[in-house]
Design brief:
Elements: H1 6-9, H2 11-30, H3 35-49, H4 52-64, H5 69-74, H6 86-100, H7 116-138
């Protein structure tokens, strides 16, 4: 057996992940995070994890919400560009820290650009996005033109 679609084999677990995703999305809205920042975080996490399915989906979502191709082109090297606000840079750095779980933790993102509520919201968003990446990659979701 080479491919198993996790959502079809255990639909109840998939449903719970969908519910957790809804809670994370509500948290980012409640925290007042801009929708483009949310998509940038999802894109960056998916780049780190190598999830083509989620990269395509969230890049399309970002474009539909008004994101520019220039910013999308450099999100993989966000720290080298001047395209991103202090809050976006902090959120991207936090997302990378949560995704990579560096030990000891590097708190380079903690520059005061994010409130406690926003930090928590980005943390939950990152946890959920990492889970979605793993579902899509493990299930070999198709990504074709």
């Amino acid at each position: 057996m080479s491919t198993v679609n996790l959502s079809k084999e255990h639909p109840a677990a998939y449903k719970e992940l969908t519910a957790l995703n809804a809670q994370a999305e509500a948290a980012v809205q409640e925290a007042g995070l801009h929708p483009l920042l949310v998509e940038l975080v999802k894109i960056r996490i998916s780049q780190i994890n190598g999830c083509a399915f989620c990269l395509r989906m969230h890049t399309r979502d970002a474009v539909a919400k008004g994101e520019t191709t220039d910013r999308l082109a450099v999100v993989a090297a966000w720290w080298e560009s001047q395209y991103f606000t202090a809050q976006e840079r902090a959120a991207l750095a936090l997302a990378e820290q949560v995704t990579r779980l560096s030990v000891p933790a590097s708190l380079t993102w903690d520059d005061g650009s994010l409130t406690a509520k926003q930090t928590s919201a980005v943390g939950w968003l990152t946890i959920v996005m990492n889970a979605w990446n793993r579902v899509a990659i493990t299930s070999h979701y198709p990504v074709a033109p």
